[in-house]
Amino acid sequence: MGGRPSISANLILLDGNKDHRSAADIKARRDAESALSTGVHMEMWPEVKANKKAAEEFERVRELLKYIEKDDALQEGVVNRYCLLRAECVDFEKKRETFMRSLAELKREYKAEKLDTAAYFGLVTDMQKNIVSLDKQIMSKRNMMLAIEKENLMTIASALRSIPKKAPTKKTQTPLEAAGFGDI
Fold first, then answer.
1. For 139-152, how does the pLDDT look when each residue is reduced to its tens digit (9 = 90+)?
2. Structurally, how many domains does the chain consist of?
3. How confident is the model at residue 1 (pLDDT cuts 50, 70, 90)?
4. H/E/C letters for each residue in the chain?
5. Which of 9, 28, 80, 126 is placed for a possible disulfide with 45 were both Cys, Cβ 3.0 to 4.6 Å?
6. 113 and 141 in one domain?
């Protein structure tokens, strides 16, 4: 696959760089782009609406997608899942920060000699295990989010690449085809 990737008809017109593109090419491109869209806007799932952080993320992403004219129901599932993952990530990050504050408080109590050494190290070990567990969960969610981000972008890029750069040309008939002997 050589050459540059296709760009949308709107970008061609906005850029004013119609150089070698005929009106028919631009119309064919716009029609092909329209065929890749359902024309139905994304809807927020109930579980996303119920989660304040997920709902905020959905609105943010939807606005960005509206701006590039990709607010389409075909993206709905991916965007809703992405927003739920983002909200879960934020929740795990808050829990991790709580453990970190508790660990600092534990250290202050140990230095103030309110805890004996064995109890202190036992609690520190347990908290550190919880922090490591939360870190793993956060990384897992972040990796899922990254995969969705990549796929979502690649899907949009793939859709643009699937659009022909030129308008389809009419096939001219050979003299034999015109005479009805095209099947020979």
1. 999 999 988 888 77
2. 2
3. very low
4. CCCCCCCCHHHHHHHCCCCCCCHHHHHHHHHHHHHCCCCCCCCCCHHHHCCHHHHHHHHHHHHHHHHCCCCCHHHHHHHHHHHHHHHHHHHHHHHHHHHHHHHHHHHHHHHCCCCCHHHHHHHHHHHHHHHHHHHHHHHHHHHHHHHHHHHHHHHHHHHHHCCCCCCCCCCCCCHHHHCCCCCC
5. 80
6. yes
